[in-house]
Known about the structure:
alpha+beta; Glucose Permease (Domain IIA); 16% helix; globular
Amino acid sequence: MQHRARRNAPARHRAPRTPAAPQVLGARARSAVLTAAVVAGVGVAGAAAAATATTTTVPTPVAEHTDLVPVPADDDLALEPDLTPGHAPTVSFARVQRKERPKSVVQWVNPLPEASVTSCFGPRWGRLHAGVDLAAPDGTPIRAAGAGVVVAAGPAEGYGNAVLIDHGNGYLTHYGHMSAIAVTVGQKVTAGEQIGNEGSTGHSTGPHLHFEVHAGLYKNPIEPTQWMHEHGVDIPGCVTFTG
C-alpha cells in the first residue's frame, strides 16, 4: 500500500531546461563526435550532419588596408648605386621624373681679364680713340667677348693684326694689335674662346689689346666698357657704370 501511494503521488513540477547555446567545435571535437556516432550506430552521414548542426562558422574579419601603394612598374624604378665600399647597387623606388637642369650659357666675357686699362674711349691726340686699351704681358691669350662669327681676320692698317666678330645681335667687337691670330673668316666662336694673342703690331707703343664695340655696322664705334657692363661684364677704369 505504501508503494502504491508513492506511485500515485502527483509528479513534482520541473522547470523546463534552457537549451544550451550552440558550441563551436574545433577539428578534434568534430572528430570525437563522428567517432561517438559510429559507435552508437548513427552512421557517418548522421554524424556529419550532427557535427555540422553543432558547428557555427565565424568568418575571420579582414582588415581594410588604407596604406597600400601600387607596386611601381619597371620603368618607374631608378637604379642608384650604393657607393659604400663592399656594397652592391641598390634599387630606389623614387619615380624617375628628374629633369636635367639647363646648363648656364656664358653670354659675354672680358676679352683680356689679366689686363689693366691704359687708355679709354674718347678724343686723343686730335682724333677719336674708338676703343679701350687693355695691357697685359706680351702673348697673353685674347678671348672672344661673346659668341659669333668671325667676319674679318688679318692685317688692318693701324690696327695691325686684327679680328672682327659679328655677334648676330646688331653688335660687332673688334680686337687690334695682336701678335698672332688663331681664327679664320667664317669661323663660329663661343664666348671666352681664344682668338689670338696680345701683341704690339700696327700703330702701337707697347703690347696691349685695342678693344672696340660697334653698333649696327663697322665702323660705328660706341663706348665699349659701358656696353660690356650692360651685358654683365665690368672693365673698370674708364666710366662710372650706370644701370
